[in-house]
Design a protein that fits this description.
Length: 120
C-alpha cells in the first residue's frame, strides 16, 4: 500500500501564490507517477498536473499551464509539490494528490485532500 498526505492549502487572495506538498510513504517503489487533481464545489474532479517518478516528464491541464508548476524533491523523491501562482477565484477547490503504479492506467492511491480557497 501507499499513503499520500497533502498539505499547504489555505485561504488566499486573487493573485497570491501557494505551494502544495504531497508526501508519499509505503511501497513507493511501485509508483511511476504522481499527480494533482482538484474538485470544486458542485463540479467533477479534474486533472491538474502530473510528474513521473523520475521527475523527467511533466504534463499540465490547460487551466494550469503557465501558472502552476509540479516538481519533486530530488533528495526525497517521495515528496511532490504544486507551486501555484497568480491564483484566481476559479482555482478554489479541494486539491488531491494521487499516485500511479507501474503498469496501471488508473490512479489507485489518493490523499485526503487539502482545501484551497481564493478570494476575489
Amino acid at each position: 500500500q501507499v499513503q499520500l498526505a497533502e498539505s499547504g492549502g489555505g485561504l488566499v487572495q486573487a493573485g497570491d501564490s501557494l505551494r502544495l506538498s504531497c508526501a508519499a510513504s509505503g511501497r513507493t517503489f511501485s509508483l511511476s507517477a504522481t499527480a494533482w487533481f482538484r474538485q470544486a464545489p458542485g463540479k467533477e474532479r479534474e486533472f491538474v498536473a502530473t510528474i513521473t517518478w523520475s521527475g523527467t516528464t511533466t504534463t499540465y491541464a490547460d487551466a494550469a499551464k503557465g501558472r502552476f508548476t509540479i516538481s519533486r524533491d530530488n533528495a526525497f523523491k517521495n515528496t511532490v509539490y504544486l507551486q501555484m501562482n497568480s491564483l484566481k477565484p476559479e482555482d478554489t477547490a479541494v486539491y488531491y494528490c494521487a499516485a500511479l503504479e507501474y503498469g496501471s492506467r488508473t490512479y489507485r492511491f489518493w490523499g485526503q485532500g487539502t482545501q484551497v480557497t481564493v478570494s476575489s
